[in-house]
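User: Here's a structure from my thesis project, written as structure tokens. My advisor, Dr. K., wants to see whether a designed sequence matches the one we expressed. Can you design one independently, without my sequence as a hint?
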């Protein structure tokens, strides 16, 4: 189980590293795909071993390897926070077999590393992925705000679209899963959508609110 948690935390740290790239490059109009990481001061390419989340910054002692300019501590903090968020959410939801989620969709699921590796419930993985996506997205928006930059409107539309699509599609693919995508307080209110065949009405209300 420890290896699984370590893998999830490492994945979260890498997501945090990508968020650092996003927050730095997007306001400057730089590509997120092309061009390697460089020191903002001397523009020297950052070596791969110095790009390892958190550890790279510690290895450099917070300074550029080439020009010795200080590297903001924000970078490892963001990576560590993202690793913690993704690690906690994924560990609690996946390793419990969904027992921590609202509704009854995952009551009989098998938890622990054995259940995750050898009896994988892909609907649970999908729900956990949506939750992590939402948390990381909100975290990214907060970082933009802290840096004094506006969040691109198309990104807001994309995030809202993904969440609405997740809630819309889940009753069709996994009829009992849609409540796990929503806050606990809303579960009792929308639990009858699929059963009554009117879940799309609630979806329309959600879409109107997002718009």
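Assistant: Designed independently from the structure alone:
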């Amino acid at each position: 189980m420890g290896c699984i948690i370590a893998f999830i935390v490492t994945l979260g740290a890498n997501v945090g590293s990508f968020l650092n790239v996003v927050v730095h490059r997007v306001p400057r109009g730089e590509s997120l795909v092309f061009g390697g990481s460089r020191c903002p001061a001397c523009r020297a390419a950052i070596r791969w071993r110095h790009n390892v989340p958190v550890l790279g910054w510690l290895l450099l002692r917070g300074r550029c390897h080439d020009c010795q300019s200080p590297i903001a501590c924000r970078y490892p903090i963001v990576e560590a926070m993202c690793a913690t968020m993704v690690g906690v959410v994924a560990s609690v939801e996946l390793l419990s077999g969904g027992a921590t989620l609202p509704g009854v969709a995952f009551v009989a699921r098998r938890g622990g590393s054995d259940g995750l590796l050898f009896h994988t419930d892909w609907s649970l993985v999908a729900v956990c992925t949506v939750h992590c996506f939402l948390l990381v997205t909100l975290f990214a928006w907060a970082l933009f705000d802290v840096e004094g930059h506006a969040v691109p409107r198309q990104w807001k539309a994309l995030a809202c679209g993904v969440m609405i699509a997740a809630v819309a599609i889940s009753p069709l693919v996994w009829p009992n899963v849609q409540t796990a995508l929503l806050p606990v307080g809303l579960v009792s209110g929308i639990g009858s959508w699929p059963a009554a065949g009117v879940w799309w009405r609630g979806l329309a209300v959600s879409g109107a609110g997002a718009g």
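When you compare it with your expressed construct, this may help: Residues 122-146 form the longest helix (25 residues).
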